[in-house]
Structures are given as C-alpha cells and as structure tokens.
Amino acid sequence: MVKPVALLGGKSALYSIIAIAIALALIPLVLGYNMYYVYLAAQVVLVTIMVLAWNIIGGYAGQLDLASSGYMALGGAVSGLLLAFYNVTPWLGMPLGALTAAGLAFLMGYPTFRFGVKEVWYALSTAALVVILQRVFWLIYGSTEIYMPIHRWSWYHLRFSRYEPLYYMLVVILLVTLWLNIRIKNSKLGYYLTAIGEDELAAEALGIDTRRYKLYALLIYASILGFVGGIYVNLTSIVSFRMFDPWLGIVVAVMGIIGGLGSIAGVFMAAVILRTLEEYLRSMFGATIPGIHLLIYGLLLIVVGVLKPEGFAGFLKYFRRRLARGGSGG
Amino acid sequence: MGSAILSVRNVTKRFGGLVAVNRMSMDVRSNEMLGLIGPNGAGKTTLFNCITGVYKPDEGRVFFEGREITGLPPHVVVKRGIARTWQKVRPFKKMTVLDAVTVGALLKIPSVESAKERAREVLEFVGFPKEKFARLGSEITLIEHKLVDLARALATGPKLLLLDEVAAGLRPHEMDTLAKVLLRIRDELGVTMVIVEHVMRFVMNLSERIIVMHEGVKIAEGTPKEVASDPRVIEAYLGTKPV
Ligand SMILES: Nc1ncnc2c1ncn2[C@@H]1O[C@H](COP(=O)(O)OP(=O)(O)OP(=O)(O)O)[C@@H](O)[C@H]1O
Ligand SMILES: [Mg+2]
To answer: Scanning A97, A135, A328, B61, which has its CA 20 to 30 A from the CA of A85?
Structure first.
C-alpha cells in the first residue's frame, strides 16, 4: 500500500493543501462582518474549483475545453429544479447533477474524440455546447427566473440566511478537487494525460488509447462541475438560462492557461488573483467602464503569452530558482 | 531463428495521386537487424507509418507474429509489441526526460514508481547521461532527444523496434556508441530491429541484410555487399543524388 502522503504527491503538496485549508477557513472570520465579502469569497472559491477541474482536461490533457460553465449550469439546473419543484434535497441533487453533466460530457466527448476533433475545432464545439444548452433551457423555461425556496437555516435544503455554510462546503470541494489534481498528476492517468497534451500521436505510439483517456479526463472534469453546480444555484438562489454563460467558460479556460498549463499552484494563484481583481475592478469601475476586467484578462493573456509562456507557474518556478540561488549562494 | 516476425504483403499507400508505397512486400526475420534504405522520398517512413497504424494502408496486409495487424490503431500495435522512433522528433517538451520514458514504461508496468525505476534502467542502457534525467524535453538537444526517443520506445518492452533515422546528425564516434547500444538491444534484450538510415556506413556495418526502396517500390534485397553493387540501386541513388 502507498502511504497517504505519497498519494498526495509528497509532503510539500500535503502541507500546501493544509495551508490553503487553514487560510480559506479563516477568511469568513475576517470578512464576516460584511456578508457581501463572504459571498465574494465564495465566488472566488467557486471559480477556483472550476479552474482546477478544467486543469484536468485543459491543463493535463491539453484540450481547450470552453464548456465548464455549461456543465456547471446543467448540474446546477438539475439540483436546483429538483429542489424548487419537488423539494428534493441538494444532497441528492448534486450527485444527480454530476451524473447528468457526466452523461452529457460522454455524449459530447465520445463522437468528438472518435472523429479526432482537435484544437480550435474542439474549442469551438465546446463553446457551442454552452450556447446550445442555454437555448434549450430557454425553450423550456423561457426567461423566467426560478427561485430557490427560502429557509432561514436548513441543511436539508442547503438554504441559509448567511453565506458561511455554502462557503465552507465550497472550500471542502475545492480541497477535494485540489487533492484529485495532485493525485491524478502523480498517477498513470496523469502521465498519460500529460503525454496526450504534449503530443497525441507520440502518446498513441507509446500505447496510450488517447480517445479513452481524453474521455476519462472529460468525465472527471464534467462530474466535478455538475456537482458544484448545486451549490452555485443555492449561492445565487436562482436558476435561469443566464447560468449557461459562454463567457464564463472562456474565462475559466483563460485562467487555467494564465495559471500555467498543468501546474496546480499556478492555476490556484491565477484563479484567486484574477477573480478577486475582477470583483475589485467591477466594484470600482463597473459603472464607469463596464467590462474593464475583460480588458485586463486580454492584456494579461498577451503579457503572459509574450513573456512567460508557462504562465504563473513559470513565474513561480523562476522565483523559486532565484530564491534557491540566493540561499545557497552565500 | 530465421522465421518472419513481421510480414508486409503488397502494401500500397497513396497521397492523392502520389503512390508513396507501392505494392511493397517484405519479411523481417526474428532477431535480425534489417536495414531499410532508399533515397529521399522512397517511402520508408510511410511504410513505418503503415505498419504502426499511423496510416491505414490503401491496399495490402501486415502480419506480426502470424496475426494480422493491418489498420489497427497505433496504441494496439505497440501493445502487440511493435515500437518505433520518429524521424521528425516528437518530444514531450514540458516533461522531464525521465517522465517521458516513464510514459513508455507504463505500458507494461502499471505502478508509476516501478515504471520510473524501469525508465531509469532503460535510459542508462541506451547511454543517456544520468545528470540530465531531470531535464525538460525543451532543455535537451535534438541529438539527445533522439536517444530519449529510443529509450521511450524501448521502455514499452517491444519485440520489434522500427528505427527511423536514429543516427542522423550524430558525429562518427557518437554513431559508434549508438551502434553498440543497438547491438546490445538485440543481443541482450532480444529485440528485432528495422533500421531506416541514410548514413550508409552505419547501416552497412550493422545489418546483415538490407532492403532498398525507391519510389515506393522494393528494388533490391540482400547482403550489404550485394546491394551496394546492384546496378538498380546505384542508378536509384545516382538518379537523385550521388552517394
Ligand atoms: N502525409 C503526407 N501527405 C502527402 N504526401 C506525403 C505524406 N507523407 C509522405 N508523403 C510523400 O510520400 C513520399 C514518401 O515519403 P516518405 O517520407 O515515406 O519517404 P522517406 O523514404 O521516408 O524519405 P526520407 O528519406 O526523406 O525520410 C514522398 O514523396 C513524400 O512527399
Ligand atoms: Mg523518412
């Protein structure tokens, strides 16, 4: 048997997870005086989860998937509608949401990978998926917003008068997703996905069933998003066609890329910094310069693309090397 | 000994109007080092691609150890025991050398730790410098990558290895080292090899048997000596470029 620490990818990974857990756990205690900040923190954690989930298909397996928001919204719709219409607990709704998203991912991924749809074409087809989902939802429910039931404090409904419970649930999911990333990275699956991301034909020639492994990555990614969707709808209290947001799918991919493809620390940093920055810019300039955060994303992408192709991860590595050099140089 | 491990039967591959491989047949005998030569554009690489499943031949069949493998996808062909290297290198740039070879080793060894161990052994076996195991694919030279490519393929534990210009760009003494490695791969690991090579001295010394292709067709087959004095071979080479 492998020791648990080894499964986590070494001691340093375990320590960083613990450090992140403690930091995230403390945030509401610091910001709790203002509910809006806790709500924002929850949003940041949520987007980080999305980026970390994306990292499995986009970072490791190298597939430029833009449908993360679609899978999340689908899972959220399943869980939210069951709750709103049939009083089904999200504890059941979330796994069902995950299952539905995975089912859709299979329907999407099987033919896509079967017919070798790659790169730009893959990106386009996944972006289209979000739009199609949005249209379908709109055809069924129109533009009405479906509200989650109001409860002061119900663990059955996952409805609360404060944001902390949902925030902490998201933190737990974040940690699990982070752990899953590390676990995959150090496993045969991770080696195979990374090889696929590097060069599919070379990977194939080393015995990797690339279609099958890409599908595995897609299913894991979609399941996480489908699951977390149930919390998302309870956080915003609304299910509507607007959740199927093609732009969010792109932002998640951009964050993953800026974070440094396949690097866990980089992805985490990018999501936290960019999402916080976005909220900050929106609250400061949102009224005067709408969409300024989009501009910032674009600029960042260009800067990273030109200077540091490995994104934040490359930056971290560079920094660590300098530190190491400084330390041993004396 | 001597029986055919690989049989290619009347394989044809076309690209539009161009017939890259034209009704090509050949047998590779168990545990031999077969040289496959021919001028640029002769169809050598395309033939490799037809054998390994990168391309599906338009006509003809391929048998490995008596079983048909025509048109099987590459990952199945490797599992049967045919590994290959690439003329145009396909490095895993963001992986370390050790990790890249580990990917190959994972085919037969499911545990990452053991596969890594195996990868280390294979890299040492092919003579890749130990201090560069942790280098990224993007940090090594093209020549070094040729060796990693060989190790990567070898780590899959093949019975047959198709080498597409592994010696290209090597200096004479490096070529001698590589020749010794290839002999050890055959003699100690029992791997059969087909060597595509433009460096005549290299193949002529290594292979006891040589097949010459020209414009998709096999034009000669025999010992290095027989082949070198074959008028059709001389003509094929002189017709394109002097040897
Ligand atoms: N994917 C392809 N599409 C179109 N034509 C191709 C393709 N691959 C090879 N060819 C053509 O097929 C012919 C055979 O090419 P191939 O690469 O098999 O030759 P080769 O013997 O390996 O040559 P070299 O010694 O230069 O590597 C050439 O005329 C080449 O241009
Ligand atoms: Mg060639």
So the answer is: A135
